[in-house]
What we know:
- This protein has helices at 21-26, 54-61, 130-134, 138-153, 166-177, 189-194, 211-222, 234-240, 265-270, 280-285, 289-304, 321-330, and strands at residues 7-13, 29-35, 42-52, 77-85, 97-101, 113-117, 121-123, 157-160, 181-186, 202-205, 226-229, 248-251, 274-277, 312-316, 336-340.
- The chain is an alpha/beta fold.
- The protein has two domains: 7-135 and 310-340, Medium-chain alcohol dehydrogenases, catalytic domain (Quinone Oxidoreductase, Chain A, domain 1, Alpha-Beta Complex); 140-279, Rossmann fold (3-Layer(aba) Sandwich), CATH 3.40.50.
- Strands 3, 4, 5, 6, 7, 14 and 15 form a seven-stranded mixed β-sheet that branches. It has a six-stranded parallel β-sheet with strand order 10-9-8-11-12-13, sandwiched between helices. Strands 1-2 form a two-stranded antiparallel ribbon.
- 40% of the residues are buried.
Amino acid sequence: MKPHYPIHYRAAELPSYNANTLRAMLSLRITEKEIKSLGAGQLLVKMEAAPCNPSDIAFMQGGYNVVKALPAVPGFEGCGIVADVGEGVDSEWIGKRVSLFIQGNEDGSWAEYVVSTSEQLIPAAQELSAEQASMFFVNPFTAWGLMEMVAAHGASCFVINAAGSRLSEYLLALAKKNGVAVIGIVRKEQTAAALANKGFAGLLVSTDNDFAAKLSDLIAKYNPTIFLDAVAGEQTGMIAGLMPFNSKIVVYGGLSGKEISGINSLQLIFKKLTITGFDLNAWFANTDDKRKMLAAEHLSALIAEKKVQNPVSITVALDALVQGLRHYLGSMSEGKMLIRF
Length: 341
């Protein structure tokens, strides 16, 4: 049944950016908003669930590449049911569960309703629950895009840091599927112990005294020619110095909060080292629908076959958002915070 307009709904709203994570979090307010009608090309999604990712935290701090006019509703991904469509949109969308990815200036997914476009939506596979469908964009498609870069470079092995992350779990599953070896780097011994039987060619702890020597030995053995870097800072330069001829560093995160440093200019010149970045927004903008749907099919299968897991550590209603964020920030390795509507 076509919804009755205007639609009044509740959303979390960020009034201002704040580099202090706690203050940014505490500033969130639950407000009532209104949708008067849909414009041409628009779809109305009644939200079911939306997670919090590190990129959402960075956005609230004002440290992400997406900057919206404030106040704004945060949330880059989620899932819901298409409730209505505007002029020029196929009515077959109505009633479909969709995963959505929003990184423009419009309001995000931390709301009971989202107005979107078909370019920001992918029909969710039937075998995916609402929880899994809500986390289907940021980590899975980033991993897919990074693996495309690995394949384009012709690498038979790559190095990843933050190897205990959910995104790295996707990368490892895709690497296994494509016969590519993975050398993983983590910060803690307990994380390494938890990952010991996951199928890494080598697994190292960056805080060990002999970390560089062990990494050098693994590089000599497996010849990884790509380093997928989620941390940045001094570690980028240290690892770059160990990489073989014609290697590529792909930076897709900055968990250290520090600038990349320690890159040897002679390595850039004589060892043909290249450094680039990966931006999921740009990947979507430059990828045709056929390629996106192929990626979605393969990624859905990985989840359905339980080759990757998307654990949720806490599920909260919109009114308990700050409580959920506090929990998530204190235990990110346990899984996502999920808002249910």
